[in-house]
Amino acid sequence: EPEVTQTPSHQVTQMGQEVILRCVPISNHLYFYWYRQILGQKVEFLVSFYNNEISEKSEIFDDQFSVERPDGSNFTLKIRSTKLEDSAMYFCASSVGSGTEAFFGQGTRLTVV
Amino acid sequence: AQSVTQLDSQVPVFEEAPVELRCNYSSSVSVYLFWYVQYPNQGLQLLLKYLSGSTLVESINGFEAEFNKSQTSFHLRKPSVHISDTAEYFCAVSNGGATNKLIFGTGTLLAVQP
Predict the structure, then answer these.
(1) What percent of chain B is predicted at pLDDT more than 70?
(2) Interval A32-53: pLDDT, tens
(3) A93 Cβ partners below 8 Å, 6+ apart?
(4) Which residue of A23, A100, B62, B71 has the smallest Cβ count within 10 Å?
């Protein structure tokens, strides 16, 4: 069964460092997303990506964040200068189209120290 | 703006008892509704969805949910729970559109006790 894969599963980084979280969405999907879940809190939307551009971003997704689809399979989230409050589980998701369900990866747990 | 309310942060229940996890949403446009389950230290798995058609939807492991437009609800039910159903359950809403983003509720921890 096709699935969304994310790497790494865990990442520890120093405050101020850049991190790149990687995702391989399901191959025939056209919509890609990043969500985050701070420990014990709800899942929050960060950004959606369609047709090679950002279609919507939340207030959380400030200038420190960027997304890229560098080739036909990968979808990355970059945090340029990490802050302690960026510590969270980051989920990548994809869906085949609008009005369809999103499939989530297993997440990357980011810890900023 | 859309929002989802899950009033119960935790629902303790004994094994083989019935359970209902409540979800209410607000939206000014047509919605698509979902329940996702998160087992400890794992990702989000789609449990069931309402996109269109029958308002009663079912999962393969015995859960069901009913879309009630007049009450703006999408409550999740199971007639008899198992220990293995212990997990966090998230209700989510989307209006499709150009972004198809999901808005999640705060989650309900279903704690099944023997």
Answers:
(1) 100
(2) 999 999 988 889 999 999 999 9
(3) A4, A25, A32, A33, A34, A35, A102, A103, A104, A105, B44, B102
(4) B71
Across the interface, whether the CB atoms of A56 and B98 are under 8 A apart is answered yes
Distances (CA, A) of A75 to A23, A26, A51, A80, A91: 5, 11, 13, 16, 12
Contact A110, A38 (CB under 8 A): no
Burial of residue B103 (number of CB atoms within 10 Å: 0-12, 13-18, 19+): buried
- Both tokens of A1, joined, read 């069964």
CA distance A98 to chain B (A): 5
**Touching check for B94 and chain A: CB below 8 Å?**
yes
The DSSP letter of residue B29 is: S
Q: How many residues does chain A have?
A: 113
- For A102, the closest of B97, B102, B107 (CB atoms) is B102
- How many CB atoms are closer than 10 A to CB A70? 9
Q: What is the mean pLDDT of residues B51-80?
A: 93
| Of A23, A26, A75, A27, residue with least CA distance to A54 | A75
Give whole-number Cα distances, B52 to B49, B89, B98, B100, in Å. Answer: 9, 22, 18, 15
How far apart (Å, rounded) are the C-alpha atoms in residues A47 and B100? Answer: 11
Residue B48 near residue B103, CB atoms below 8 Å: no
